[in-house]
Design brief:
This protein has 120 residues and is mainly alpha-helical. It is 52% helix and 8% strand. The chain contains five helices and two strands. A hairpin with a 2-residue loop joins strand 1 and strand 2. The longest helix has 17 residues. 29% of the residues are buried.
Length: 120
């Protein structure tokens, strides 16, 4: 189940639902596999310019892997191809926004806790 406060995003493909989780490991994997910085990738995808099925599959695969799925990369590509690029763009953009904005507080009035100071 997606935890919106953590920044999780649901990706639905037919009767299956996967959780894309924005983690450091997912972002690093995306950068390594696409051979560019995350912000460059995000800009290309959000501008709906110069991106391909592989770009979407890389982002979705890294996100669902971080979300606990054992789905293989090849299977993600097939899901995107079978259920449509248009259906993948929304969750991918939500994932990008979750990375950019960070986790959401369950209580909007709650302030960020200060990190404890190590006195040793």
């Amino acid at each position: 189940m997606a935890n919106k406060y953590r920044g999780d995003v649901e990706f639905k493909a037919g009767d299956r639902t996967f959780v894309l989780r924005p983690t450091w490991e997912a972002i690093a994997e995306i950068e390594a596999l696409l051979d560019e910085g995350f912000f460059t990738t995000a800009h290309r995808i959000q501008a709906l310019a110069q991106f391909g099925l592989r770009d979407l599959a890389v982002i979705i695969h890294a996100g669902v892997k971080a979300g606990g799925s054992a789905l293989k990369f090849e299977d993600v590509g097939r899901l995107v191809a079978d259920y449509g690029v248009v259906n993948a763009i929304g969750p991918v953009n939500e994932f990008i926004q979750a990375v950019m904005q960070g986790p959401k507080s369950p209580d909007p009035t709650m302030e960020k806790a200060e990190a404890p100071v190590n006195s040793t």
